[in-house]
TrEMBL record:
EC class (word): transferase
Chain ranges of the PABS domain: 3-236
Protein name: Polyamine aminopropyltransferase
Catalytic reaction equation(s): S-adenosyl 3-(methylsulfanyl)propylamine + putrescine = S-methyl-5'-thioadenosine + spermidine + H(+)
Protein keywords: Polyamine biosynthesis, Spermidine biosynthesis, Transferase
Amino acid sequence: MAGLWYTEKQTENFGITMKVNRTLHTEQTEFQYLEMAETAEWGNMLFLDGMVMTSQRDEFVYHEMVAHIPLFTHPNPENVLVVGGGDGGVIREVMKHPSVKKATLVDIDGKVIEYSKKFLPEIAGELDNPRVEVIVGDGFMHIAESENAYDVIMVDSTEPVGPAVNLFTKGFYAGISKALKEEGIFVAQSDNPWFKADLIRQVIKDVKDIFPVTRMYTANIPTYPSGLWCFTLGSKKYDPLEVAEDRFHEIETKYYTKELHKAAFVLPKFVKDLAGE
Ligand code: SAM
């Protein structure tokens, strides 16, 4: 890919393209086609099956917003699960919460973990933290085998294709509810409202059928399709909009703030309509 332009086709008619300085690694793993490249604009970037996963320059937005909203909403998160997330970015953010005694990461593809450690060390650096257990396995099966185990679960998976297809089903969300403790909270990345409106409608409907508190929030992620990224939160008790002021302890971030914790749930009208609000 060196010196060329790498294009991610986000729909049949639209995509983004970026200049690549050099290819770092490409491999067809057991589950997906893995590419790691040094891009001129975004630094090192991980692609899976031709889709942007994370980049050195804008990764903090997604990883902070997946982690800190549920972790500050729960009053005392101790046991946390990340499904997917093999680049380590969500785990890095989870480690900023001293209440977390153990974080388990379950990613189906060990190659993602291996090459993220090699080429994205500032993202993957906490995967070796003693509070972290890394499991290479199917997140769907891990959830099916878990019960009353986790305070917070974060689903940081690829798109609902290939190995991740089961991670956007109502059965999976029901399994998450079972795997959570009685006051548990989960968040799932839920793609974008411009090209995946039907997916968002379905995910919100499924989660609302299972969790008494269901909310959607957004963040700006320039390298993801449309740049407007959605997250679905399901909670058995705690409402992210009712977090007490004194709950927010100081943490180092570059996107998340305690003000944005609530403002992120203010949705544009066309997204509110999708979320059925
Ligand atoms: N932030 C990215 C996004 O929103 O598209 C996701 C990044 S992370 C690298 C996605 C991870 O999901 C990949 O490492 C992939 O191996 C993992 N994954 C896909 N299906 C999975 C499954 N069934 N169980 C566990 N991990 C899975």
